[in-house]
Design brief:
It is a single chain. Helices cover 17% and strands 39% of the residues. It is an alpha+beta fold.
């Protein structure tokens, strides 16, 4: 049994030497930005008050936020960890318990945030397929501009010792393995972990841990956009803005989502995605290999930087 069962990922934190440059990138990426307490906060169109935080400093990944179901869960977690429940000084308020994972990363578990007002998403006309003609006697026009990021879906972390870090996250937060990445029947290097929300469907993965040759560090964070047209409009916006494309557009094997990876001005990888798999706690776990991890159903092969 885990100490608590988290509901979802909440946010990712970064440091950067120039908040103006970061703001410009995030707005091209499809996030709405605002400064609060000397930090740059970025939100999507969903009800989360923020998804991405940047503070001034040397470039780097500064931490991961997870969302608990209640203040009571925070109190249970704090008691088990010898930590404190503290007010969260950020948009939406709420409370936080701050922990450090085995690789020294800040993990902030939050609850009680006031939801933000949802922002409108573009209305989309139906698709015409060979099997079903749903759009009749009208044209289809997709507006240009940034993608409409809705929410943060998952974060990928490079870890020093997969089994030790996996155990730490599972024992505290109740993650379930969706797909474990095995090099041999006896040796695994990573796993896609989903939230345990019982019968409620949840993303194929909220956290992915991978034991990387380069050692512990940030790999990427992934943001769900409105739909495939929205992802492609966002791709064009980032391309026209001269942003650094890393990998895409394609469809993953594990998780099944359509993906498009970009780098911020300091080299942190952020992903747009849509149409991912959803599972419940009853759907069990699978074992896969590196071919499935790095392969695609369609799209370009993974670049060396994604390895």
């Amino acid at each position: 049994m885990s100490t608590i069962k988290i509901d979802d990922i909440a946010f990712v934190r970064f440091r950067a030497p120039d908040l103006t440059q970061m703001r410009a990138f995030l707005e091209d990426f499809g996030l709405a930005t605002a400064e609060h307490g000397g930090r740059l906060y970025a939100r999507g169109s969903g009800d989360s008050p923020f998804l991405h935080v940047t503070e001034l400093g040397d470039p780097g990944f500064a931490g991961l936020g997870l969302r608990a179901a209640s203040i009571e869960d925070l109190q249970d977690l704090a008691a088990a960890e010898g930590a404190r429940v503290e007010p969260l000084d950020a948009p939406g308020g709420g409370h936080v318990v701050r922990l450090t994972d085995p690789d020294g990363r800040l993990v902030e578990v939050v609850a009680g945030q006031a939801p933000a007002s949802a922002l409108p998403l573009p209305e989309r006309e139906a698709w015409n397929t060979a099997a079903a003609r749903s759009r009749l006697r009208q044209t289809k026009r997709v507006a240009g501009g940034p993608a409409h990021v809705v929410r943060l879906g998952h974060c990928v972390l490079n870890v020093s010792d997969f089994r030790a870090v996996e155990r730490w996250y599972k024992e505290r937060f109740g993650f379930i393995t969706s797909d474990e990445i095995a090099l041999t029947p006896e040796f695994s290097v990573g796993a896609f972990l989903r939230c345990d929300r019982g019968a409620a469907p949840t993303d194929h993965h909220t956290l992915f841990l991978i034991q990387a040759p380069s050692g512990p560090g940030f790999n990427h964070a992934a943001f769900e956009v409105a739909d495939f047209d929205d992802l492609m409009a966002g791709h064009q916006q980032l391309k026209d803005a001269g942003r650094h494309a890393e990998w895409g557009v394609g469809r993953h094997i594990l998780g099944s989502q359509i993906f498009d990876y970009w780098r911020d001005p300091w080299g942190h990888t952020l992903e747009h995605w849509t149409d991912g798999d959803l599972f419940t706690a009853d759907d069990g776990s699978n074992v896969a290999g590196l071919t499935d991890l790095m392969g695609v159903q369609w799209g370009p092969a993974a670049p060396p930087t994604m390895g």
